[in-house]
Amino acid sequence: MSLGIQVQQDSQRAVDILARAFHDDPVMNWMSGHPQFIRTFFNITLPIFLPDGLTYIDEQGKGAAAWLPPHQKLHWPVTPHNLWQMFKVCGIRGFSRFAMGGLASAKFHPGEPHYYLFLIGVLPEYKGQGIGSTLMSHVLRKCDQQNLPAYLENSKRENLAFYQGHGFEVVDEIRFTRKAPTVWLMWREPRQASAEALAQSQCSAA
Q1: Cβ(55)–Cβ(110) under 8 Å?
Q2: Regarding the domain with residue range 5-205, which homologous superfamily does it belong to in the CATH classification?
Q3: pLDDT tens profile 117-145
Q4: Which among 198, 156, 197 has a CA at the least distance from the CA of 173?
Q5: In a 10 Å sphere around its CB, with 0-12 CB exposed, 13-18 middle and 19+ buried, how is residue 135 labelled?
């Protein structure tokens, strides 16, 4: 399957896709069972990724991904308005869980330069059609051409094989609290890029 990629300047289409793709995510649902929690979370967080040009959807609007480039730190959009929006869909317990998740993620985040996959998701009815692989490969080619690793946090056991198939390995397993779902921290070393890919990269940079 050959699919094109559309870089997003506005987060709404990606939010629409990811809100459905993450409807059964264990960690998201552990944080809050409110029906608007996932969409609210993406509405607040995705816009901070747009300026880097690594938030994109496939051309048919069936999948989306958001990455952070190397040397760019993740800065959560903590404002009174955003905190209030999250509190409304979390409550006290959910808000506490959300905060613990953010602190734990920051604690274990690697310090060396890497591409960070914040989110990737495909609409449930289109899974298994190669859309996720197309979305993933779009940036992994950059990793290999630039000889840079990649990192992600995976919250679903059934997705481990997908990520491992793209070269990621589990480097740690964490829980935000003792009874929280498992999060697998995964790392991918760059693969040696082909001579053709390197030449293409050099031409585009010239």
Answers
A1: no
A2: Gcn5-related N-acetyltransferase (GNAT) (3.40.630.30)
A3: 999 999 999 999 999 999 999 999 999 99
A4: 156
A5: buried
